[in-house]
Amino acid sequence: MKRTTSGGGRRRPALHLVLVLALPAAFAAGVGQADWRVPFARGEQARREGDLETYASSMSAAVEAMPGGLLNRPFAQYHAARANALLGRRSEATRYLRMAWDEGIESLMISWADHDPAFDALRDDGAFRGLMALASATDLVVEPLAGSTYRITGAGANLVASVGPDGALLVDTGYGTALEPIRRALRSVGAEAVDVLVLTHAHEDHVGSAAGLGDHAVIVAHGATAKAMGEPSVFIEGVELPPKPASARPDIELLGDTVLRFNGEDVWIHPVPAHTEGDLAAYFASSAVLHLGDAYLGANPMMFPGTADPDRFLDDLDRFLDRLDPGAIVVGGHDPPTDLSAVRLQIAETRACMDAVRGAVEGGKTAEQIVEATEGRFPAPWVGFFYRLFTQPGPGR
Ligand SMILES: [Zn+2]
User: Which residues crowd ion ligand 1, with CB under 5 Å?
Assistant: First the structure.
């Protein structure tokens, strides 16, 4: 059964802040002119101002400056395609989409062009239509992790599935275009349907196919995720998505720890409100596999906008990790699998960076002085992130 409550009054949707750490000028200077964030930020600014030529040239420059394999590349490639589409440069637009598809970092991101009015002029373009068809015909990669669990990649985010006598429990869904590819991937390991779907948070790259799977699956998510799914959202700025349909909404809303028993093992569900207010972690206790969602993103500090009390969040995360098998496999939202020591290292670096910036802010230091004092010790975007956290009160804390 699905809840059918409406999303309530219309409000400005929250921006999707997964991967791009925008930089104040002082921190952009700190990372050097060759860094891709500088042209990327210039491109974003030009887009807001309606300066399409600068939007296009800056996003192209950001793509040029980015190292291969970087998670942010498809974002910049998508923007470069989008800017060129708005300028009527059809072949340049499809060239960037094709590049994002071929590099395979998050290939399905190109399917956004199907919903994005910026690409209206390309709807009848053969090359564009061919790319959109590729996106829906894609095959995901299924790899065994441990015990009953598999990691499924290519859907837009890391999915973890437990497959066994009770059926399939899936953590996250990827984009909406991933629906049929997910079904094919699960059939390849013997699962005919998803019986339980756990959502780590409400962002489109994690819940996009929930509506299609939710007709059969019982959906479990945090109450804050359920609330967010009832509201409009923006995944790529300029492309607003309506509230999720009833079939996508959680059947069971959690506000604290719980344990599900599925396929003969306990699955611990633990809130980790790091990246949004509603993040959940799922730990398959016998398989010793942890899905941390976007609470763990390799390139970012451990804690990202959404948590009210960063110190308490990190302490709670420590205690949670202490309860797990020391040899557990850790799957974050978008990176290759890793282990607990990598997560602990990231927590330690996050604490050190946070403490250094907090101390400097409390000591009255300026942004420029903090950049100088922390150079070589912490990535400039982390310093910028914590600087904003401690100097700008309000949402995001
Ligand atoms: Zn994500």
Answer: 18, 157, 205, 294, 333
Is CATH 1.25.40 correct for 32-137? yes
**pLDDT tens, position by position, 63-113:** 999 988 888 899 899 999 999 999 999 999 999 999 999 998 888 889 889
Q: Tell how far the Cα of 330 is from the centroid of ligand 1, in angstroms.
A: 15
- pTM recorded for the entire structure: 0.85
Beta-strand relationship, 218-222 and 252-254? parallel
Contact 300, 229 (CB under 8 A): no
What are the pLDDT digits (tens) for 153-162? 999 999 999 9
CATH superfamily of 141-346: Ribonuclease Z/Hydroxyacylglutathione hydrolase-like (3.60.15.10)
Q: For residues 352 and 360, is the Cβ–Cβ distance under 8 A? A: no
CA distance 46 to 23: 15
Tell me, in angstroms, the distance from the centre of ligand 1 to residue 334's CA.
Answer: 6
